[in-house]
């Protein structure tokens, strides 16, 4: 297996998982999550458009309509939305880290800044999950 | 094996990518807050929706452009990718505004 990986990427190759450091993982996940988010935004806009165009009553009717199928009935959609929350939070937090480096902040402690941003992201998404989800689930 | 190639980059696109990134974190935070805890008027939701849609489409499609151009598509491919993604972005913006229309006119 190790030999196969070495053949594929080269022993000193930048894509050999052995040589991939934290910053490169962050770069790679940033790209993959970015593409995933573009697909999600397309699906999200289509879903919300359907709900908005079916809107006949006041605003809360639409929100009620959104709440039930999304959260209470379809657990697959709930799982996808939770996955997307994690992906979006990672992309945003790592993105702030990149912008900070571009303006010259934290260049000497990139790994520390990475884990600080991850901690902030976990706290923020944890807040949404524990305080927001029960409201959306109607429980 | 090289991971990053030297692709022709536009400094304005790079700058707007950073600006839209920071704005997206803020607007998306408001969006998530309103979706979970919010009591906002339809007009405020419509304005935030259009802003978020525009920012997300620019940032997302410009990011896809960056990823594709890193695979060395050549000068012709470079122009083709940029034009295609620009047209796709305009189409998706119109589609999204169409979906938000009840909120826009109802607000």
Bin the strand percentage of chain A.
under 5%
So how many helices of chain A? Answer: 5
Largest interface: A-B, 35 and 34 residues
Overall CATH architecture of chain B: Up-down Bundle
CATH fold group of chain B: 3 helical TM bundles of succinate and fumarate reductases
Helix content of chain B: over 70%
Tell me, what is the CATH class of chain A? Mainly Alpha
Total number of helices of chain B = 3
Overall pLDDT score of chain A: 80
* Major beta sheet summary of chain A: none
Tally the structural domains of chain B: 1
Helix content of chain A: over 70%
Q: Quaternary status of these chains?
A: heterodimer
Taken together, the total number of domains of chain A comes to 1
Using only CA atoms, what is the Rg of chain A? 20 Å
Based on CA inertia axes, which overall geometry of chain B fits? Answer: elongated
Task: Describe it.
The complex is a heterodimer of chains A (139) and B (107). Chain A has helices spanning 2-9, 22-53, 59-73, 75-102, 110-136. Chain A is mainly α. Chain A has one domain (22-136): 3 helical TM bundles of succinate and fumarate reductases (Up-down Bundle), CATH 1.20.1300. The longest helix of chain A is centred in the N-terminal third of the chain and has 32 residues, at 22-53. Chain A is extended, with a radius of gyration of 20 Å. Chain A starts with a helix and ends with a helix. Chain B has 3 helices and no strands. In chain B, helix 2 (42-69) packs antiparallel against helix 3. Chain B is 82% helix and 0% strand. Mean pLDDT of chain B is 87; it is low at 1-6.
List the helices and strands and how they pair.
The complex is a heterodimer of chains A (139) and B (107).
Chain A: H1 2-9, H2 22-53, H3 59-73, H4 75-102, H5 110-136
Helix pairs in contact in A: 2-4, 4-5
Chain B: H1 11-37, H2 42-69, H3 74-106
Helix pairs in contact in B: 1-2, 2-3
